[in-house]
Amino acid sequence: MTLKIFISLLLFGWCCPWCAAQEGTISIRSGKQSVVSVLDQITKRSTYRVVFSDDVVKEDLAVSLPAGEYTITVLLDKILPPHGLFYRELSGNLLVVGARSMQGMDEPKDMMLPALTGRVFDADSGGAPYVSVRLFADNRFLTGTNTDKQGQFRLHHAFKTGQTYALRLSAIGYKPAEMRFIYPDTASVADLRLVREHYTLNEVQVNAQKPAVERRADRFIVNVEGSVLENGSNGLEILQKSPGLWVDPNGAISLRGQSVLVMVNDVVQRMSATDLAEYLRALRSEDISKIEILPNPPAEFEAESSGGIVHIILKKGRNEGFMGSVNTQYRQQVERPLYGIATTVNYKIKDFYAFGSASYGKDQSEYIATNDIHYPDQSVYNSFTARYNNNDRAMLRLGAVYDFRANQSIGLQTNINKGWMLQYFDTDIALTDEQEVVGGLANSEWTRTPLFGSSTLNYSLKTDSLGSGLKFIADYMYSENPNTNLFRSQYDDPQQDATFRNATPSTTRLYSAQTDFTQLFSNRMQLKVGVKYTSTNRDNEVLHENFIADDWVLDPGRSNRFLYNEQLVMGYTSLEHKYKRTSAQLGLRAEQTIMDGNSVTADIAFRRSYLNLFPSVFIMHELDSAKKTSLLLNYTRRLSRPSFAALNPYRLQFYDYLAQIGNPDLLPEYTNKVETGITWGSGLSFDVYFATTSNMMVQYAESVDKIIEYQIRNFDNSYTYGASLFAPIKVKSWWSMTNNLHAFTTRYRLQDVDYRRASFNATTFQVFNIKKIGDADIFAYYRSPYITANSRMANQFAVDIGYTKRLLQDRGRLRLSITDVLNTAREKNVTEDNGTTIYFYQKRPTRTVGLSFSYTFTSGKKFSNKKIEQSAEDEQQRIGN
Predict the structure, then answer these.
(1) How far apart are CA 296 and CA 255, in angstroms?
(2) Segment (H or E) for 587
């Protein structure tokens, strides 16, 4: 973070509603302002640095003040208490703002303590206004204030007789001064004098950098803004560098082996895992502020996604005016390029906010893959595939928010994502048995043009100054995915030749509405209740056509139309209370599921209705008064529903020896998890957990007539227990690292076979700040062999390096990066089923060289982005083929 403190503040008075005549005072024009804006201006226009959390000081908190000049103390006393906030000066010029209700703070009792009064004079023997006055004992800060316009001050403190104290004075343009006294003899501090400096700096710039990753009681926070992560990467690559998360080569995101729910600015991304990965690849790191990772979400979140929640928070301004950014990137992947451009614009005038963003990217790449299948009769299938990808992606997001009351706002947001995906596969085939070897050549063209759109209406009402409120959210989502795969194969034996095509179009419509109410109490208690209704309609087809006599002929036996309707009725309540050093949160969520499936082609229909309860418990105990060391204990129950496509009773033949089969009998899986751990003030944390899953859903590979069929099935229970260590280390002032280690053991039983495997993964992210040169960084990860269903996955290892340079008065960023420097990342696995063994290998173009540039521009004052929440959360994760 960069904080600029201007000495000649009068230069800004003519063009800005805020100005500081000198240190310690702020001039303000009349009118409504956000509390966040006031705090930001105090930081910019004075020597103080104000620190606060976006969760505590929310952007919709507003204050109206008459025009005039205020000391910082008076200004904070006017804007914070009405909203249940308070501030403390921790050291020097650092002010921290917190929530009184959540921290259990009583009203200040300083006025009941003994007072120390005095006056500060300047070199002209006049009263020195707005001088910072701080009280210390044994170099420990006690309290502080500012002098008024006449140079007078008053400090309240529980003074001890015979104790030596030091009074330290500071003001811009004057030398710092210190006066010691032994209480109660305070005569020496009654009249104090400052001496002018012989020189004055026009500008002082202080650089402070947040750690790349922070650990909180219930989450990890990856600080993208202001770090080397900010430039030249996409959203998916940032998640790869986040603690606890694993992003597989196809872009699927998991936390401790289970799927997660992804949100962006409180908006749940409602798309299939494949489309979500493509969206995150198009999201630029320059637009991301931070990422929150919640392994065990509380009751207010839907019970879907047993792995937890990943919340991506985009950057936001806070004042009026126009602001935008442009990002460009080029990356060379062996012989094929990747390039893209993105822009974001925002505008705010008074109570109206408007924002928009657009991006376009093109990705061309080449893969190679091999498949070797050994059958029980000693025959062998060998294949070598060359794959070429030619993908285009475009995104558009538009939104507006209007604050029509100080405590009420309404917003509307629309998102559109469009893709043009084309993949070519050329495969050499050899079939070997005891008598002969048959060779073949197969090729396929897979074309997809997915379209995703959503609209969200949001209304919020603040009911008191503590932060209590009501919100209502209505959602509509539409998704269509035209999908065609044309396959041709030719063998030495013409009777084995085949030409066919599969079309798998799908259309999904989703409607959702929810209401949430939060009540905060002054006695460190918080109550949340909410209800939600979601309706989903899905139309999915599989059309299999064979090329016969120069014409396409539909195969009814391999074609199917499947209609799916689902309704969810949900409600929750959550109570949080803090007593001394212990805080506890109890939650209970109920979800009623009603679903109807109808295979029109096969004339198969089914209906299911079930009610589930999902309790949760979170306990944290602070071991010291400084809140640096805490013990954690939590329990959650969650579920994962089968995707809509997985319930379709279809058979999709990808090529001669590979097929995907649906399963209308799938049931949701349920996960119970207990976790405990300890965190230290340095950021070090250690956790252990145990999770059990019933009705476990896994994709099982089975050999049927030499064709490998993949189908998602329910099995019995699985058990996972493990431990994780998070260790941020500051090696030198210019060298920092963030390390994460996760070790776990998984046990389950499939088809009368017991599976058990101990595995671990480790990551290290190291940053080197080199003065006047730039920032260098190294990221490395290792994942040991592990198991999933009846497959054994090989280990994975890679190293990335990067260099970032700031340009154009810090508005521009130029970044050079090299991914997978050693070219070690690859995919290998072995799958076994009843004597059939499948060996798979794939190598993607992971070693790349990239160059990116970003530039931020402004016109007039900065402005504030407003966040619009969406309602239909987990259903979006199940959309897609």
Answers:
(1) 10
(2) strand 582-599
CB 250 within 8 A of CB 842: no
Share of the chain residues as helix, strand and coil, in percent rounded to the nearest 5? 10, 65, 30
Is pLDDT of 114 > 70?
yes
Cα 491 vs. chain centroid, distance in angstroms? Answer: 49
Position with higher pLDDT, 860 vs 596: 596
Q: Is residue 878 pLDDT above 50, yes or no? A: no
Partnered with residue 579 across adjacent β-strands are 582
Burial class for 742, CB neighbours closer than 10 Å (0-12, 13-18, 19+): buried
Query: Is residue 171 within 8 Å of residue 130, measured between CB atoms?
Result: yes
Q: What is the DSSP code string of 814-830? A: EEEEEESTT----EEEE
Q: How many CB atoms are located within 10 Å of the residue 659 CB?
A: 17
Assess contact for 765 and 733: CB atoms under 8 A. no
- Closest C-alpha among 597, 599, 502 to residue 560: 599
What's the pLDDT tens digit per position in 789-848?
899 999 999 999 999 888 887 788 898 999 999 999 999 999 998 889 999 999 999 999
| Nearest-angstrom CA–CA distance, 575 and 559 | 51
561-597 per-residue burial string, b: 16 or more CB within 10 A, e: under 16: bbbbebebebbbebebbbeeeebebbbebbbebebeb
H or E segment at 861? none
Please tell me the distance from the alpha carbon of residue 400 to that of residue 517, in angstroms, as a whole number.
23
What is the chain's length? 881
Instruction: Provide the whole-model pTM.
Output: 0.73
Q: Which helix (H) or strand (E) holds 219?
A: none
Q: Which residue has the tokens 């910072």?
A: 132
**Could you read off the pLDDT of 377-407 as tens digits, one per residue?**
889 999 999 999 999 989 898 989 898 877 8
Closest CA to 55 of 467, 408, 351: 467
Determine what percent of the chain is predicted with pLDDT higher than 90: 30
Please, what is the end-to-end C-alpha distance for the chain in angstroms?
Answer: 43
Amino acid sitting at position 722: G
84 token code pair: 């249940």
Q: Which of 765, 657, 649, 769 is nearest to 711 (CA)?
A: 649
The 10s digit of each residue's pLDDT in 432-463 is 987 888 899 999 999 999 998 889 898 999 88
Could you give the CA distance from residue 453 to residue 376 in angstroms, rounded to a whole number?
A: 49
Say if CB 777 and CB 802 are below 8 A apart. yes
Structure tokens at 555: 């195969």
DSSP β-bridge partners for residue 511: 476, 535
| C-alpha span between 730 and 684 (Å, rounded) | 12
825, 838 Cβ separation under 8 angstroms:
no
Calculate the average pLDDT of the chain.
81
